[in-house]
Every structure is written in C-alpha cells, then in structure tokens.
C-alpha cells in the first residue's frame, strides 16, 4: 500500500497531536501514524500538570521559569530554547483552555496552580505555585482535547502501525515505511515533511514508569542511518514510583504537601535540600532516596524503598486532587494513602536526550548543524535541549505543546512550498527483509530473554549512580546482546496482530538506544544533573559544558563515535546548583 500526504506525523501523543493540529491549520494534508490508538499514548500517564508562569495563585514571571529550567538542567540547557519555552507556554496553556481542556480551578474560576519540584520564585528563593493541572490526570486531558481538535481539523489517522524505516536519501526525508499490525501488510508513506513524535525508551530499564510501547523506535532508526543522538547519557529517574512496580506517583503529591520519610520517620530531604526540601529537582530527590536506602534507612521487606506520607493532608485534598494516585495505591498495594504511608522507589522515567533539533524542530545531522531536509522531531524523541541534564517536572507536557506546535507550523510552511521528492526504487526493501528474516530465520535466541538481561543490567550499571568500570562492563554486555539478537527468530509466523514479531523488533530498537546511552555516559567524565558518577563527582564546566553527539560506527563493530555541540548560553551564567 502506498500513501501520499504533505505532512506526516509519527506518534499520536501530545507532541504528535499538537504538531498535526498546527500542520493542519497550515492548509496542508496531514496524517498521523501511530502504533497505538491516540488516546492510549503515553502522554496520558502524565499526572502532575503543565508549568506556566500565569501567576494565578502567587506572583510569577516567565524569567523565573526560564531560570528554573536552566538551573534544573544543570546549565546544559540551551538558553534560547528555555526563553522561547517560558514565554510561549503561557499562551499555549490558555490556548488549551480555550480548546476545552478541563483544568482544575481556583475559587475565582481561574486555572488552578500548585507547587512542583524545582519551580521557584525570585530566582530560587522559595517554591512557587506554577503547575497548571486537571486533578492528577493532566496528560489524559491533553490527549483527549488534542485528539478531538484533530478530528475536527480533518487529520487522517493510521492507528496500530509500527514504523520500521525512515526513507532518507541525499539528505532529504521522503517518507516512512510502516507495518500494519492488524493485517501484516507493509505500507509506504510518501510525504513532503515528516515529524517524529514517537516518545522515549524507558523500557530499556527493569523498573520504569514507561508504557510497554516506549522502546525508542525512531531514535534507533535515526541512529542506524549514521545520524546522531544528542545527550543520551542524561536519563531521569522519577523519585516516586510505586515500590517494585515503577508505576508513577506524581510529583503533584509533594506539591500538595506530601513528605518523604525514611525508616525512622525522618523527613530526610531537609538534609539534602534545606530550602525547598521535598520539592527539589527530581535528580536530587532520586539520589537522596537511594542514599538513604544504601545507608540502611530504607523501608519494606527488602529495605529498598522509602515512604511517601500524605496522612497529614485533609482527606478531601487526597481524594479529589490526587484521585488517580489514591486509586493506584489502593489497587496495586492495598494501601489507603489517606491513612497509611505509601512505599516508593525511583523509577526510570524520561530521556533528556534524543534526536537533535533546531528551535523549529528541524532534525540535525552533524555536529556543525547540517539538517535533514523535510524531517522534524518534537517531544521526548527529540532533543532541542530544553531540559539539559535534568528535566523539571511539568516541563515535559509544556515541551510537547510548545515545540510540537513549532514543529507543526514549520513543517506545514515547508510543505506548502516544497515539491514532493521522488521515492527510491523499492523503498520498503529493508523493512521487508527485516520481517522476513525474523519469520524465516533458524536462530535459537529468544528476544524476551535478551530484553530481560538488557533491562536488568542497564538498571544495575547505568542507573542513578554510575562509575566507569560498571559502564565499561555494560558496553561489552550490550555488544554481546546485539550479537545474540542477530540470531533471534520468532515462533509465530502469522500476519494478524503478531505481538511476538513486533516485540522482537522493539528489542532491537532498545538495544540501539542503550548502546548510544551507555557509550555517551562512559565518555562524560563528570557529574551533571541526572548523570552522577561516583568516580568523577564534580561538575566540570571547563571541559564538559557541551552536548554529546553519539553516532553509530557504520563499520558494524558495535562501537559508538562521539562528537560535540556547544551549549547555547545567555543571561544566566553557570553557578553551583544549591536548593
């Protein structure tokens, strides 16, 4: 099957739907290809809110938000991206409100706002109410609202299609190849502009808040073509996942007054971040939790968790403002957070790195900024370097809206003037060969076993605390796993809804993302943001105030070539990161 559109969006989460909506407003034909039904996309799991300096509850200014974003990113954030973001997100939140998003309200009827980790007033003096929320279902409401708006705008959807290849020739993106999960047919999509919005790769880790579908598909496909992935060493662990399960408990719980306590009941964050305590940035809180556990102050049967305490909050606040978290705790733990402490532990949550882009979402192909014509990216798959070395809570949803919109506008503008580039002969050849080899191969390796070993070793060797020997060992483990993956085959050779086949393809994508991440982390000999090395404990601005660009070695030896891109500085000079 062959399809033609002016603008093609891969992924139907918040970034993809925002990009598609704004491309459609540009009077071009738009289609969205997604391996999920849009309202099941992982944006729906985002609970806490969207940070924007509306000032509805307390005085706030976009400059304060910009500063918090840069400081939270440990000064690896590109400051031009942070400025655009902090300004544009204010208008974008009001735009969502006008689209019909049912925000929670203040008594005066304004959009309600609450405190969130790392968000401060007056450049760090105290916590500020900046997160705009819809109870603890903000991401779900964004998906529903944007999907309805896309239906209204006439966007075409191809749901349950797994993308297998990007068609790039002579530096020009010409479309994609996708596998129809329902029928087993390959489809080619020919487009003037393609926007990648396919999310992250949290399933590379054993304990993660990420859905099963977040396997870094388009990051891997981009990387396989010899193109760079930026800042892959920076991966955020959210401090509060349900113990053992990794299911997210929103930072909004601490924004409403929740407290982290160790075995003795101590509010230990007072020792790690005296000013904003439990509302410190996520990387700092995650490290504090692991430190408490390491030093013998953990809770639970294995002493590998910490308590989250909301028992001092009014029942109404817990039941109403944190309804989903209350339900999750009761369902999965048999614990009523109104009366009992909830055991939590850090969970792999968010990739700060990804496909490097300009401020308009154009995909960058080299260290010196050359572009892939007609290719854009937004959301977690992309790295405009808004988040630097550590993303602040709420800035992911803001990123989706602001940079998804910019990518959609830019792609539509490009498509209106562009001529549809010719497709190569037999554009689906690579994807067809991949599927055929998995179905007909005689290899005895099992993809599920490889995935399990990858997840366990990544958690152990490239987790919250890192060191050179462990990461060097992980480099070799990944090489071995990739060698074994070449001997993988599937037992199910059917065509309709072949989940074994799709999961096997996804394991290959995860291995690529883990390879780029581990090599980048081993190469960066400092501690910054979410990248914390026990053998290089200090931030080193003299040598490492720069972005990593990781390229696959195309000679097939399993090595990664590292390049660099300068950080865009501005009004906020790097300073010690104290909260």
The low-confidence parts are none
Number of helical regions: 16
Q: Beta-strand percentage?
A: 15-25%
| Major sheet summary line | 8 strands, mixed
Distance between the termini: 56 Å
CATH topological fold name of the domain at 429-542: Methane Monooxygenase Hydroxylase, Chain G, domain 1
The CATH architecture category of the domain at 429-542 equals Up-down Bundle
Globular, elongated, flat, extended or rod-shaped: what is the shape? globular
Q: Give the averaged pLDDT, no decimals.
A: 95
Class per helix and strand makeup: alpha/beta
CATH C-level of the domain at 429-542: Mainly Alpha
The CATH homologous superfamily of the domain at 429-542 corresponds to: Fumarate reductase/succinate dehydrogenase flavoprotein-like, C-terminal domain
Radius of gyration: 22 Å
Helix percent band: 25-40%
Catalytic activity: a quinone + succinate = fumarate + a quinol
GO cellular component, one term: plasma membrane
Pathway: Carbohydrate metabolism; tricarboxylic acid cycle; fumarate from succinate (bacterial route): step 1/1
Active site: 282 (proton acceptor)
């Amino acid at each position: 099957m062959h399809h033609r559109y002016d603008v093609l969006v891969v992924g139907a989460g918040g970034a993809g739907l925002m990009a598609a909506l704004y491309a459609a407003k540009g009077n071009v034909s738009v289609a969205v290809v997604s391996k999920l039904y849009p309202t099941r996309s992982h944006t729906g799991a985002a609970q806490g809110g969207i940070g924007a300096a509306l000032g509805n509850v307390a005085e706030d200014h976009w400059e304060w938000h910009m500063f918090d974003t840069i400081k939270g990113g440990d000064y690896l954030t590109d400051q031009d991206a942070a400025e655009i973001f902090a300004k544009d997100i204010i208008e974008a939140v009001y735009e969502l409100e006008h689209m019909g998003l049912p925000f929670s309200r203040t008594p005066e009827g304004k959009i309600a706002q609450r405190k969130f980790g790392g968000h401060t007033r007056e450049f760090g003096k105290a916590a500020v109410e900046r997160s705009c929320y819809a109870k603890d279902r903000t991401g779900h409401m964004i998906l529903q609202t944007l999907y309805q708006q896309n239906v209204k705008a006439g966007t075409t959807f191809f749901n349950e299609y797994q993308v297998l290849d990007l068609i790039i020739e002579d530096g020009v993106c010409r479309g994609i190849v996708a596998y129809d999960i329902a029928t087993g047919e390959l489809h080619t999509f020919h487009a003037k502009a393609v926007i990648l919005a396919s999310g992250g790769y949290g399933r590379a880790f054993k304990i993660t808040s990420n859905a099963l579908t977040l396997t870094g598909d388009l990051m891997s496909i981009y990387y396989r073509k010899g193109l760079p992935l930026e800042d892959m060493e920076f991966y955020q662990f959210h401090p509060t996942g349900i113990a053992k399960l990794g299911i997210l408990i929103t930072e909004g719980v601490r924004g409403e007054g929740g407290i982290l306590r160790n075995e003795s009941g101590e509010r230990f964050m007072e020792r790690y971040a005296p000013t904003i305590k439990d509302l410190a940035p996520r990387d700092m809180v995650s490290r504090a939790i692991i430190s408490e556990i390491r030093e013998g102050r953990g809770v639970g049967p294995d002493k590998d968790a910490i308590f989250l305490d909301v028992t001092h909050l009014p029942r109404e606040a817990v039941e109403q403002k944190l309804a989903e978290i209350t339900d999750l705790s009761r369902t999965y733990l048999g614990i009523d957070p109104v009366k009992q402490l909830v055991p939590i532990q850090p969970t792999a949550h968010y990739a700060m790195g990804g496909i490097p882009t300009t401020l308009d979402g154009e995909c960058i192909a080299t260290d010196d900024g050359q572009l892939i014509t007609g290719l854009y990216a937004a959301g977690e798959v992309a790295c405009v370097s808004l988040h630097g070395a550590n993303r602040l809570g709420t800035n992911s949803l803001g990123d989706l809206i602001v940079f998804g919109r910019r990518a959609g506008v830019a792609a539509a503008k490009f498509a209106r003037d562009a001529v549809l580039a010719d497709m190569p002969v037999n554009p689906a050849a690579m994807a067809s060969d991949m599927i055929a080899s998995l179905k007909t191969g005689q290899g005895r390796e099992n993809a599920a076993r490889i995935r399990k070993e990858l997840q366990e070793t990544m958690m152990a060797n490239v987790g919250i605390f890192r060191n050179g020997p462990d990461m060097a060992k992980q480099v070799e483990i990944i090489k071995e796993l990739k060698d074994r993956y070449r001997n993988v085959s599937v037992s199910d050779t059917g065509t309709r809804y072949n989940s074994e086949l799709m999961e096997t393809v996804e394991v290959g994508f995860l291995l690529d993302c883990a390879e780029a991440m581990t090599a980048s982390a081993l190469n960066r000999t400092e501690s910054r943001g979410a990248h914390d090395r026990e053998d290089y404990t200090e931030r080193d601005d003299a040598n490492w105030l720069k972005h990593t660009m990781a390229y696959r070695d195309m000679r097939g030896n399993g090595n990664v070539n590292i390049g660099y891109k300068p950080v865009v500085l501005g009004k906020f000079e790097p300073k010690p990161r104290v909260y």
